[in-house]
Amino acid sequence: DRVAAPAAPRVRSVDRGVSVALKYHPTIAASRARVEQAQANLEQVSAGFLPQISVSADYRWERSGGAGSTARAGARIANSGIVQTQGGGVQVSQLLWDWGKTGALRQQAYANFVAAQADLASAENEAVFAFKQAFFDNLKQEQLVRVGEETVRQFEKRLEQVKGFVEAGTRQKYDLTKAQVDLGNAQLVTVKAR
Asked: Is the pTM above the cut of 0.85?
């Protein structure tokens, strides 16, 4: 029946939050995927300028014989009438001229790649700004709560002092009412800040 020790509170920092936002924000992840897609498209279009090599292979079994058939060249399987043939080829081609079509496609793919990178940078900037704004708004609220709590403590002390002065007859009852109202206002501000 061991009780686990409470986890140490995590220290919040702007840098840690920014790194988490940049790593997991869904808009940034989608923008990264668009950059990768645009880069792959650019590589694919650019490949049109490179030499193209194609290789083919062929292997067949054919039954030969019968009326009107001609003898086929190839390795014969003993007394079965089956002929084995194989072949292959290699073809090399290089684009020389296509009236600028591939070049225009490459320029378009490059422009799409640059635009995707700009979209990614914009998404990263927006995510960082949104995180920092929320982070500092949260810190501001925490400080407002602390200030409000301290103000309430001061008004409580002031109220006790004024009660003593009123009981001693050195202050009027109006001062006691004003101290109570000031304490109530301070408590209201603290509740709103929370």
From this structure: no
